[in-house]
Design goal:
Length: 108
């Protein structure tokens, strides 16, 4: 936090060049969008200054993928009982054929 306090108000805290874009986190520090992308690649979704989590970007592909996954999760919940029954049938059939092969087909 002390490092950021010495910067001019319109200076990107990553590349130290003039900047008008602000960080989407709590501190609202000046940072270029490309510099913010680099920070997120190396430091994850947590701001290196205020240590708060960056809010999700509504235009990013990741947030759209997350919505798709939530829909997929509800689809899997509806299939939950069906796959269990199918697995039981498959195991029963495999077990039955194993019993037949071991007891009647394979000679002693």
């Amino acid at each position: 936090m002390a490092y950021y306090a010495y910067l001019e108000e319109d200076t990107c805290y990553v590349c130290l060049e003039e900047c008008s874009h602000k960080s989407p986190c709590t501190c609202q520090a000046h940072v270029h969008k490309t510099c913010l992308d680099v920070v997120q690649i190396y430091h994850g979704e947590i701001c290196t200054i205020c240590k708060s989590r960056f809010p999700p970007d509504p235009d990013s592909k990741d947030s759209a993928d997350l919505e798709d996954l939530e829909g997929l999760d509800s689809d899997l919940d509806s299939l939950d009982g069906k796959w269990k029954h199918m697995l039981c049938y498959i195991l029963f059939i495999v077990g039955f054929f194993t019993y037949i092969v071991v007891n009647f087909v394979v000679p002693y």
